[in-house]
Structures are given as C-alpha cells and as structure tokens.
Amino acid sequence: MNTITAFFYVFSAVLLFAALRVITARNTVHATLYLVLAFFNAAGVWMLLRAEFLAIVLMLVYVGAVMVLFLFVVMMLDIRNEQFREGFWRHFPLAAMIGVVIALEMAFVLMRGFQPSQAPTPDAKALEMGNSRLLGIELYTHYLYPLQIAGVLLLVAIIAAITLTLRQRKDSRYINPSQQVRVKAADRMRLVKIAPVVDAPSDAQAASVGKEGGAS
Fold it and tell me: What topology is assigned to 1-82 in CATH?
C-alpha cells in the first residue's frame, strides 16, 4: 500500500463517518459542522484524483459560502429538533430501503460505465496544460450550449424562488425603490416650531437667580 492509497482510505473513512453523523446528530449545528467536514474530505479525495479545480471549487463555493450561510441560518432560526424527530424510527425502514436501492443503482452505473481499463490516457501536451485549462476548453467548446442552458435554468429557478417567497403582508415593511429614487432633500428633514412647555423666566427672575448663585 502506497501513500496515496493510505490517504484515500483515510479520507473515505472520515467522509463516511461525517456523512453518517449528518443524519444522526441530534443538534442541527453539529450536523452542519459534520457536513463541512464531509466536504473537506471529499475535496481531499478530489485532490488525490488530480482534480484540483473541482477540489478548490468545492472548498470555496460549498464550504466557504453555502455551508457558512446554512450555519448562520440554522443558528438564527433556533430550530427545535424534537418536532422534526417525531416518527423517525417509524419511517426508518422505508428510508433505508430507498437508500439501498439508490446505492445499488449508483454502483451498477459506475461499474458498467466507468471502467479504469477503458479510461483514455492523456498525452504529454494535455498534462502540461493542466486539468483546469482542459476543463475550461471542454466546457466552452464542446459543451457550450448545455452550459448556457444550465445557466438559464438556474436563472429561472432563482426568479421563481424569489417570486414564490415574495408575499405581501400587512405587518411587513418594505421600501419602494421608485419612491426612494425620487426623494428630495426637503422630504428628509422638516423644521417644526414647538411651543415651550414652561415659560421662559423674566429678566428680574433671572437676575435674582444669578445673585443667589453668586452668594452661595
């Protein structure tokens, strides 16, 4: 067993343990942190497969942005786990059966479709260019139209999510951008004269108060 194989088994073992703890941890924050650990080890496996670009994207996008956002949302919402865990063991047999079927399907596809003996061997020029540049060339030449279609679908999904969650409520406060642009300086501040509650002292009263203060 060489060093790369040893690292692969270490990363895979930690990855499986972290993935198991994601669905079995009682605390939601702990489950999110275990998911971050799973992403770290998945990036390590990508590095061993010489897919540095995918490993860096996994670290920057998922760990650096998405999971931090998930962690902040979970900590701010303060979700009660007792309500979500009601009936967990009742639905566990069906969930386990579906998980086994999905695992068998993935194993069948991977074993039939990706065989190491049939993998193409890269030439010397491809090795000098690096996999990041090769991936960019493949995406923006042979797969340009599928990439553009995927981008349009993601844009439509973002607009649909915003539209579905945009609900006007009576107790919600919102800002109209058109009114905010048309605002003027005179609309922001007004000078209002307010009558005093206590009348100002006369000159004689002020002089007497000054003498009493000097005598003391």
Answer: Four Helix Bundle (Hemerythrin (Met), subunit A) (1.20.120)
